[in-house]
Structure formats: structure tokens, C-alpha cells
Design brief:
With 384 residues, this protein is α+β, with helices and mostly antiparallel strands. It is 31% helix and 19% strand. Helix 1 runs antiparallel to helix 2, helix 2 packs antiparallel against helix 11 and helix 3 packs across helix 7.
């Protein structure tokens, strides 16, 4: 069955020629609702995608791509998606795990070639599973764009990157951990992080996406705006070229320049295809990216030694974003961007949203625009 994709540009034609007016009417209603949401929450722009019955049925792009230039967002335009990027990194790690390169409970220090030990608990190894689930006892206090902050040979203050509690016993969201995973992808694959992800995840799925900012025509990027003191200011660092750093790149050490923790660049419609892999036990459109067992592990809660559990799996976590539905996924926030990827794998529906700036407050633990965009799309396409 051919995938049906609707956007604001196609609604008028669809109302005339489509034999399925229900979808056309839903698309028209969604276009109106997203435009109203931009006005209500003082957002710069908004781009979304909807999956229903295991297919992408709607995409829409609204508002400004660049305020200063007066350009509008299109459905093909590229956003830096922030922490949803972690799901690509965890996918890469699980592919290598499937190849028998390591065990999830192996000591990550062995491959990294440097001690990865909490000085308060030096006898407890920090494992791949702990890195994937934010249970390492590491923190981001000293930053996360260089491994030097935790290398005892390069800094005497490496201890500051560790909390007092023992690895594996508590959860603390940690970007440093996922940047370390990027280096581990390189060590176990022999391929540079961005190139590995492109070859083994993006290209097989046909995604126009990349961790390397220099892989794009810069005109494709949606400008991200930070909202401060009542004003939107363009975030200059969101799409900074890494060409200079690449000249001195060290495999297994320099991966943070691509930000495995938050640096993926992609449009909503292509992120929806990545989401469909998670919704379908590792395979989408006849392409297997992961084995079903790996996807199950990514979705599974982390079990603490005391018998309790934390819902965050391997960059996939449960969410109460839609009342009465068992949603899971991830969000992102950086440089003024707010993004969300949420799906219900059993009922085969899901949502992608990205805004390049919003002045709205918070609802249900999310930015209001994240929460409302997902719920409005659910009401239009799924609930009704």
C-alpha cells in the first residue's frame, strides 16, 4: 500500500481529487491547528509528522525558517534534533552488540583504553548498559564535549565528573555518557562515528540525515532561536562547521565533535522512518536495522540492584504525554529547539514534532508546544 503524505501545500488538491476525503479533511484540520498553536504559544516555526496504521500519513511545516530572511519552513527542511539523537547512537551500539563485539555488562574501560571508574567506588566497572541507561554515576558538571574531563592522565579533577553514589544504583541523565558511546562505536567498528551511522542506519533507510553538519547544503537548515528576555535570538552555534577539527581527528577520542548525544540533523518525515524501525521490532520497509531482541532491550526498564526499576531504556523511555496511551520515545531541547518523538508500537501510531523556538511554558513535564502538538495531532488523526 502506498504511503500517503499530506502537507499544507497539497491540501487544496487533495480535497478535489482524493477518494478518501477523511484524510484530506484531517490534514486540513491539522494545518489549521498547527498554525493556531504557533500563534498561541508564540513559536517561531513548527514542523510535524504523523504515523498511523504503520505509515506516514501527514507532514506539515508552519511558520518561519529564518526570521531575519523572512523565509518559511518547508517539510524537507533540516533541524538539529538534540537529544533524540541518542536513539541513533544506541541503535549503532546495539548493531555492534549483535555482532558480538562486546557484552552489555562488559567494562567499557577496556575498549576505551582509559580508566572509567568512579573514584568513590573504584572496584565497580562502568558498563555499556550503564552508559546507555544513564546509570554510570557520571555527571555533566565539567562538560561533555571532551573525554579529557574524565581522563586521570590529563586532569587531576576528573573526580568532579562523578557523583558520590555507586555506578548502577541511581539514574542521572548524562550527555557525557552518550558522547563516550560515540567513541565506542568507532573503536568497535573501525569507522568514524558519523560515517558509521550513515552507512549502517541512514543510508539503508534512505534518510537525508547526518551527524556531520558539513554533509548538508547550509540552506537546508532551519535557524534555531533561543527565547530570552522576551526576544528570540538566533543560536549561532547550532550548525557550526567541524571541518577544522576533522583535520586532527583521533578515532575513539574525537567523536564528541559530532555530538552523539545531540547532534543529529534531520527533517521530521525522515525521523518518522527511524521511529518506524523502533515501532516494528527493528525492521521498516523491508530493511532490518536491528533484531527484535535488540529493540526489546532498548525499550526495557533498567533494573536497579534493590529490585526497583527506571523506565529509561537505551534512549527510549515511556511517557504519559497522551492520557490513556502507552507512549514511548524521547524529546530534545538545545539552542532554542524543542523536539519530540513519541510512538505506540502496538497500535502503530506515532508523532514527530520540532519547533525552532517557542516562548510557551511547560505542561506535563514537557514544553507546552511539545505536549500540545502531540496531543492535538493525536486528537485529529488517532482519537477520532
Amino acid at each position: 500500500m502506498k504511503t500517503l503524505v499530506y502537507s499544507a501545500l497539497f491540501v487544496a488538491a487533495l480535497l478535489i481529487v482524493s477518494s478518501d476525503l477523511t484524510f484530506a479533511q484531517q490534514a486540513q484540520k491539522a494545518d489549521q491547528a498547527m498554525n493556531e498553536l504557533i500563534q498561541e504559544l508564540n513559536a517561531v516555526g513548527l514542523s510535524v509528522a504523523v504515523v498511523k496504521d504503520n505509515q506516514i500519513v501527514y507532514t506539515g511545516a508552519f511558520g518561519a525558517k529564518n526570521i531575519e530572511e523572512g523565509t518559511k519552513i518547508g517539510t524537507d527542511d533540516i533541524f538539529r534534533i538534540a537529544s533524540i539523537s541518542k536513539s541513533f547512537t544506541s541503535t549503532a551500539i546495539m548493531q555492534l552488540y549483535e555482532q558480538g563485539k562486546f557484552g552489555l555488562d562488559d567494562d567499557a574501560s577496556i575498549a576505551l583504553g582509559m580508566p572509567l571508574r568512579n573514584p568513590n567506588h573504584p572496584d565497580i566497572p562502568i558498563t555499556y548498559r550503564m552508559l546507555l541507561t544513564h546509570t554510570t554515576s557520571l555527571n555533566d558538571t565539567t562538560g561533555y564535549f571532551s573525554y579529557n574531563v574524565i581522563d586521570p592522565e590529563l586532569t587531576q579533577e576528573y573526580w568532579r565528573a562523578y557523583n558520590q553514589y555507586a555506578p548502577g544504583t541511581q539514574y542521572e541523565y548524562c550527555n557525557l555518557g552518550y558522547n563516550l558511546l560515540g567513541g565506542l562505536v568507532e573503536i568497535h567498528s573501525g569507522e568514524r562515528f558519523d560515517l558509521y551511522v550513515k552507512k549502517h542506519i541512514l543510508d539503508p533507510l534512505g534518510l537525508h540525515a547526518n551527524f556531520n553538519v558539513d554533509a548538508f547544503d547550509r540552506s537546508e537548515f532551519v535557524t534555531l532561536y533561543d527565547y530570552r528576555n522576551g526576544q528570540f535570538t538566533a543560536s549561532a552555534g547550532a550548525y557550526t562547521s567541524r571541518a577544522a577539527e576533522l583535520e586532527e581527528y583521533v578515532m575513539g577520542r574525537s567523536a564528541p565533535i559530532f555530538s552523539p548525544t545531540g547532534g543529529m540533523k534531520v527533517a521530521p518525515k525522515d525521523l518518522a522512518k527511524h521511529m518506524l524501525v523502533q515501532m516494528n521490532q527493528g525492521t521498516w520497509n523491508g530493511v532490518q536495522i536491528l533484531k527484535p531482541e535488540s529493540v526489546a532491550a532498548m525499550h526495557a526498564p533498567y533494573q536497579f540492584p534493590d529490585g526497583t526499576a527506571n523506565g529509561y531504556g537505551f534512549a527510549i523511555a515511556p511517557s504519559g504525554v497522551i492520557e490513556g496511551e502507552r507512549m514511548r520515545g524521547h524529546t530534545g531541547s538545545a539552542y532554542g529547539l524543542y523536539s519530540a518523538m513519541y510512538f505506540e508500537p502496538e497500535k502503530k501510531f506515532g508523532f514527530i514534532m520540532m519547533t525552532n523556538g517557542s516562548a510557551g511554558g511547560r505542561t506535563g513535564g514537557l514544553m507546552t508546544i511539545q505536549y500540545k502538538a502531540v496531543n492535538v495531532l493525536y486528537d485529529i488523526f488517532i482519537k477520532q
